[in-house]
């Protein structure tokens, strides 16, 4: 029995050697000593040979890491053995290997930089006073019941929404998460204050904070998509309310929920649909813009729209 099991185990290990996985998770929980957690997380991730980004704050942890499947599993197992992180909801996806340039583990004032570190309060159950969490099925139920009254509110940077978003979503004019406060205080969205507003983002973390900020600023019925677009895509693929590609923060740059997904974005040069962002060739700009693979191969349109218009 033991021999058989370990033989199978060994075989699985060999087969799994080249399988690269990326994990994405966050936990909002009070951490008395973020620096100690940082040291531990750094040693653990490094020891497992992982690369990616981990942010620690007094309010918890936010991590995106990639590596060999067995190493990632080991990292996850040990991370979850720490009581405050036990409930971490780990989102797995398949990487290409070398998805991140390096390992970075840092302590920051906020897990996501909304520049409101004092407005967010957490306890062992997570963020206090956030929007009601809706799992993908519950989201569909809300829409069945409330129909067009339901408003999707994109909690990401506007650029991310260029290649994919929920059908009919409001995409706030934000370049970074820091811009959200001005945006929701601008009055532009006041007409939605008494409607059911569903915030969504990649994995859910930005909405944990954004939904609090919106509620505190007079939005009366705020929900957040539990597990974010990632979980929604796993549940409904391309047959639900999501259109296009999902922008991701690793070398892949985008992912799709099964075949047949078409990006909502268009190549700046030829107009063809593409999910491919590239960096502006102007070193002082480096803004990302959409350019299809054919135009990239042909060396067309090296700079972003703004740099073209100023003759760079
Ligand atoms: Zn093109
Ligand atoms: Zn540019």
TrEMBL record:
Asked whether the UniProt record includes S-adenosyl-L-methionine among its keywords, one would answer: no
Q: Which Pfam families match?
A: Rhodanese, Rhodanese_C, UPF0176_N
Q: Which NCBIfam families match?
A: PRK00142.1-2
List, alphabetically, the SMART domains matched. RHOD
- SUPFAM superfamilies according to UniProt: Rhodanese/Cell cycle control phosphatase
Alphabetically ordered keywords of this record:
Oxidoreductase, Transferase, tRNA processing
Task: Tell me its EC number(s), please.
Answer: 1.14.-.-
Any idea where the Rhodanese domain is? 146-241
| Enzyme class, first EC level, given as a word | oxidoreductase
Record field: catalytic activity: uridine(34) in tRNA + AH2 + O2 = 5-hydroxyuridine(34) in tRNA + A + H2O
What is the documented function of this protein? Catalyzes oxygen-dependent 5-hydroxyuridine (ho5U) modification at position 34 in tRNAs.
- Coiled-coil residues are none
Source domain of life: Bacteria
Q: Does the keyword tRNA processing apply?
A: yes
What is this protein called in UniProt? tRNA uridine(34) hydroxylase
């Amino acid at each position: 029995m033991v021999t058989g099991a370990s033989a199978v185990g060994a075989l699985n290990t060999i087969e799994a050697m080249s399988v690269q996985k990326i994990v994405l998770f966050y936990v909002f929980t009070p951490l008395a000593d973020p620096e100690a957690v940082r040291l531990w997380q750094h040693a653990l991730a490094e020891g497992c040979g992982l690369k990616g980004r981990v942010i620690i704050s007094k309010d918890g942890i936010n991590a995106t890491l990639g590596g060999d499947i067995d190493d990632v599993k080991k990292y996850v197992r040990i991370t979850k053995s720490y009581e405050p992180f036990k409930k971490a909801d780990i989102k797995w996806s398949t990487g290409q290997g070398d998805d991140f340039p390096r390992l970075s583990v840092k302590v920051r004032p906020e897990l996501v930089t909304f520049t409101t570190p004092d407005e967010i309060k957490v306890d062992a159950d997570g963020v206090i006073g956030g929007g009601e969490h809706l799992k993908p099925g519950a989201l569909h139920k809300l829409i069945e019941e409330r129909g067009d009254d339901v408003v999707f509110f994109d909690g990401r940077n506007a650029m991310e929404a260029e290649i994919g978003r929920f059908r009919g979503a409001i995409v706030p004019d934000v370049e970074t998460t820091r811009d959200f406060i001005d945006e929701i205080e601008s009055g532009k969205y006041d007409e939605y204050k008494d409607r059911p507003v569903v915030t969504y983002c990649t994995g859910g973390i930005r909405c944990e904070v954004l939904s609090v900020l919106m509620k505190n600023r007079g939005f009366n019925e705020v929900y957040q998509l539990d597990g974010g677009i990632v979980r929604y895509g796993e549940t409904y693929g391309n047959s639900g309310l999501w259109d296009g590609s999902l922008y991701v923060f690793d070398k892949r740059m985008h992912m799709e929920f099964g075949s047949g997904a078409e990006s909502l974005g268009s190549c700046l040069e030829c107009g063809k649909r593409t999910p491919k962002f590239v960096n502006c060739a102007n070193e002082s700009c480096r803004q990302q813009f959409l350019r299809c693979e054919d135009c990239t191969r042909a060396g067309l349109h090296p700079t972003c729209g703004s740099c073209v218009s100023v003759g760079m």
